[in-house]
Amino acid sequence: MERTYIMVKPDGVQRGLVGEIVKRFEQKGFKLAALRLMTPTEEHLKQHYKDLAEKPFFPGLIKYMTSGPVVGMVWVGKGAVTTGRKMLGATNPADSAPGTIRGDFCIEVGMNICHGSDTVENAEAEIALWFPEGVATYEKSEDAWLYEKR
Ligand code: UDP
Ligand code: MG
After folding, report:
1. Where, by residue number, does ATP bind (predicted)?
2. Between the N and C ends of the chain, which has fewer C-beta atoms within 10 Å?
3. ipTM score assigned to the predicted complex
4. Rounded to whole angstroms, how far apart are CA atoms 26 and 19?
5. Is 24 within any annotated ligand binding site?
6. Does the active-site annotation cover 115?
7. What tens digit of pLDDT does each residue of 117-134 get?
8. How far is the CA of 108 from the centre of ligand 2 (A)?
9. What are the residue ranges spanned by the domains of the chain?
10. Residue of 24, 96, 115, 131 with catalytic role
């Protein structure tokens, strides 16, 4: 099963949107494998966003991401990475469709409340970075009512 790393950013935490974001992934049918409130170091965030290090917005991004605690989580399910990105909406909330998390709850690209892994490979790297101790594995009875048996 696919796994994705979803993170409520400092503005999402401050604005009381943790529950709303958890709710959407839960109601979709994805399985929660890890969840933690944390205050990451600048170094940790630079590692998370290392592919963006050369971008002009990188210093501002790191400042934003270290402005308060974040909530990291791992969600598991069929197509969790691609579907998770769709649930988040476009990077710039101005381009995010209503009904998506960013489309419904924020306005500016530099305060877009939530992170989601963009590929399966990056998801696995991010899960290893944020949850080096590992994540939970368990059976969820709901799965019998979510996935077709073939
Ligand atoms: N970002 C920004 N300005 C930009 C592009 C991105 O401040 O012009 C921030 C924004 O918070 C975004 C994050 O940098 O979520 C990571 O950028 P990425 O391109 O990976 O977008 P995402 O994967 O988060 O949609
Ligand atoms: Mg990204």
Report:
1. 9, 57, 85, 91, 102, 112
2. C
3. 0.98
4. 10
5. no
6. yes
7. 999 999 999 999 999 999
8. 15
9. 3-134
10. 115
